[in-house]
Amino acid sequence: MAINLIMLGPPGAGKGTQAERFARARGIPKISTGDILREAVHNHTEIGQNVRAIMDRGDLVGDDVMIGIVRERLTRADVRLGFVLDGFPRTVAQATALDQMMDGRDPLIVVDIVVPEAELVRRLSSRLICEDCGGNADALKEGATGEKVDPRRCRRCGGHLVQRTDDDNAVVIERLKVYQRATKPLVDFYSVRDTFRAIDGMQPTDSVAADLVAAIEAVGNNGGARGVLR
After folding, report:
1. Fewest CB atoms within 10 A around its CB: which of 56, 59, 64, 86?
2. Hey, how many other C-beta atoms are within 10 angstroms of the C-beta on 100?
3. Is the pLDDT of residue 133 over 90?
4. How deeply is 173 buried, as exposed, middle or buried, from its count of CB atoms within 10 A (0-12, 13-18, 19+)?
5. Where are the domains of the chain?
6. Is 209 within 8 Å of 124 (Cβ atoms)?
7. Catalytic site residues?
8. Is domain 3-116+168-229 classified as CATH 2.40.30.20?
């Protein structure tokens, strides 16, 4: 059975980190619409030019654009064993379109990472991104193997780390408002399904990762109680 996973959660919940970690461990692609759009902006493509102003304001890119990006991506051969979607769907209209795309495939597993708003503001306001490769960075002083790293440089490519234009304090607050208005209803849309779980995003990264795996296994075994796993 293919693992077709949707990671839900507000900006700053850590869903991108967890999505990448899980996808790498399972050997399936992580499909991040945010990464696709930021790469398009960085490369000055036509779609990048069209969406840059929208993203800088903290608004959501239109459903038609996002649905088109994901529909094309899910036609590629590397999703045969499954995929992890990060940043899509963000509206009920997108979720409905995704259900249609999933016709004939294994079911979607949906995991919502829950984090209080005050913590989200703190995380987002201090988050950095590489201006060269667009990858997210953290403020840790040491790398994964314990070597000293320059906190001003990207561990992946060595580029300079800068604050994301959509992580400015005012934009952060606006992004969270947009999430509550447009994306939070997805929890209601998916929570009635047996394949939905929620996990506590306030835990250490490794604990969140363990709960993510447990939630997916519980869905696969058709067991486990709904609610926040702790």
Report:
1. 64
2. 9
3. no
4. middle
5. 3-116+168-229, 128-163
6. no
7. 15, 90, 127, 164, 175
8. no
